[in-house]
Amino acid sequence: MADNTLITEIGEWLVDQALSKPDIVQMFESACERLYGAGVPLARARLAWPTLHPLFQAETVLWERGKSTGLEQFQHQAERTSDYLQSPMFFMLEHDISVIRRNLDGPNKLIDFPILEELIEKGMTDYLTIRTQFSKTDDASKITGVLVAWASDRPGGFSDDDVAALQKIQRRVAVACRTAIQSRIASNIVETYLGKKAGGQVLDGAIKRGDGQETQAVVWYSDLRDSTALGDTMEAEDYFDLLNDYYECTAGSAMNHGGEVLDFIGDAVLAIFPFQSEDEFPEAAGAATRALRDANAVHEELNAQRRENGRVPIRFGVGLNAGKVMFGNIGVEERLTFSVIGPTVNEVARIETLTKAAGTSALVTKEIAACEPGVWKSTGTHKLVGVTQELELFAPKLTDQKQSKGESGDHDEAAAPLLN
């Protein structure tokens, strides 16, 4: 039987959690352990909630007595799965029910959901699911709140006092979870729209115009070729599909190698690979050029698929530059963006523009090329618009095989692999 004094103490502890920044997995694990210690015969508990994330629709935490507790995330799906449609969760949401109780053994045994059969196989004797809604919305499809499925393996299951204790503690669990969930959603949103580093600075309070810092970085700038013509001639759905494939090549590859994507400027991608000292520069430059290699690999794979499906192939150019940048908030007080500015950024956009005239898909500065001797070839010095000093720029070398294809007219160097 649950100890009411200890249940009250757990409730107060959960209030303290709500006033801090709790880790939802650790908090739920500790709450379940404390409930078990207070005499509630818990063997298993699952916490579930909807989330706001570009990849995931819902998240759950599963606690099982004597086992490690973990987070599980469920991706967005166009159609609901049969498991979900046959679940107690769907039944509760569909019929606006707050509590479901099922005895899993004894004369009152009721097995009307497939999950209950699985729980019986695990030795569970009682099942109690409680739903706590955070707020009502005008859109019925917008679900808020948490749902907790509590299960016991004690013969006879939960007592009436146990059920009362769980119903009492559920509201406090929900309050603490709301704090944790809102924090997770806020982080998801700012990281999705601003990037991890910029999003972290915003969440830490850097939200005034002019907030920022000077840093050194390898700056990546890529731009889609023939975008105006493609936008004019393609159906909107097909053009968006092409853009997303292009972003997967460029922004995705930059992020996979530690780059911070700061902005999508129309169909251009602006990213940085920060470094603190000259000793760290080769590492940042290497990360950026490895991202170029990955962009090439993804580019070739996607274009093969696109050609096979009768779709327009993707062509783009990339420029890399290195130097000091100002990283911070710019705009007007009512509408700010977190980005990088400075001569290094202006130059890299102009470097990428020169890839068309140079007949290559990538150009980098001498300092970056020097980090990988033998990989790059000089294209000579170039005059950049608005820049007094001419820059020597380097393009990736082509293999003999690919060069011979170019000579035979079967190879378009402007769409050549970024690095071989």
What descriptors fit this protein?
420 residues; 14 strands; six-stranded antiparallel sheet; Alpha-Beta Plaits; Beta-Lactamase; disordered C terminus; alpha+beta; 2 domains; 26% strand; eight-stranded mixed sheet
Write up this protein.
The strands form two sheets. Strands 7, 8, 9, 10, 11, 12, 13 and 14 form an eight-stranded mixed beta sheet that branches. β13 and β14 form a beta hairpin. With 420 residues, the chain is of the alpha+beta class. It folds into two domains: 4-193, GAF domain (Beta-Lactamase), CATH 3.30.450.40; 206-415, Alpha-Beta Plaits, CATH 3.30.70. Helices cover 42% and strands 26% of the residues. α2 packs antiparallel against α6 (160-194), α6 (160-194) crosses α7 and α9 (236-256) packs antiparallel against α10. The chain is built from 13 helices and 14 strands.
Reconstruct the topology from this structure.
Elements lengths: L3 H15 L5 H14 L6 E7 L5 E9 L5 E6 L6 H4 L2 H8 L3 E5 L10 H8 L4 E7 L13 E7 L7 H35 L1 H8 L8 E13 L2 H7 L2 H21 L3 E6 L2 E8 L5 H28 L7 E17 L2 E7 L1 H16 L3 E4 H4 L6 E7 L8 E6 L3 H8 L13
Parallel strand pairs: 10-12
Antiparallel strand pairs: 1-2, 1-6, 2-3, 4-5, 5-6, 7-9, 7-10, 8-9, 10-11, 12-14, 13-14
Helix pairs in contact: 1-2, 1-6, 2-6, 6-7, 9-10
Short summary of the structure?
It contains 13 helices and 14 strands.
Given the C-alpha coordinates, what overall shape results?
elongated
Q: Quickly count the domains.
A: 2
Distance between the termini: 69 Å
Which residues sit in consecutive blocks of at least 5 with pLDDT less than 50?
399-420
